[in-house]
Design a protein that fits this description.
The chain is mostly helical. The protein is built from six helices and no strands.
């Protein structure tokens, strides 16, 4: 199974109605999601991405991320930290679902 397929299988259930992950992600702006995906693509190791996410959460701006979103993202990615390509693919799928569900509103 490809990384993208594994990432899709990991991301889709998290966007089920009422899921805490979905609620946390829907609070993010499109810009914040784009920044997260871009940071994941640029990161060589998971620690770089985690530092970026924590920095974004500390900014407390519209382009930042909420404490709950940070918690949810780190929780879901904890088993992926050894595979940055999988982490990047997962965040790409999350961004697609974020856009799809934002547009449904």
């Amino acid at each position: 199974m490809t990384r993208n397929a594994r990432a899709a299988q990991a991301a889709l259930p998290l966007f089920a109605e009422g899921h805490a992950f979905r609620k946390a992600m829907m609070a993010l702006s499109a810009t914040a999601m784009k920044n997260i995906v871009a940071a994941s693509r640029a990161a060589e190791v998971f620690d770089e991405l985690e530092i970026f996410l924590r920095y974004q959460q500390a900014k407390k701006s519209d382009e930042g991320i909420t404490a709950e979103a940070l918690k949810q993202l780190l929780e879901q990615m904890k088993n992926m930290h050894d595979d940055m390509l999988l982490t990047c693919a997962f965040l790409g799928q999350v961004a697609r679902l974020h856009k799809a569900f934002k547009e449904e509103r």
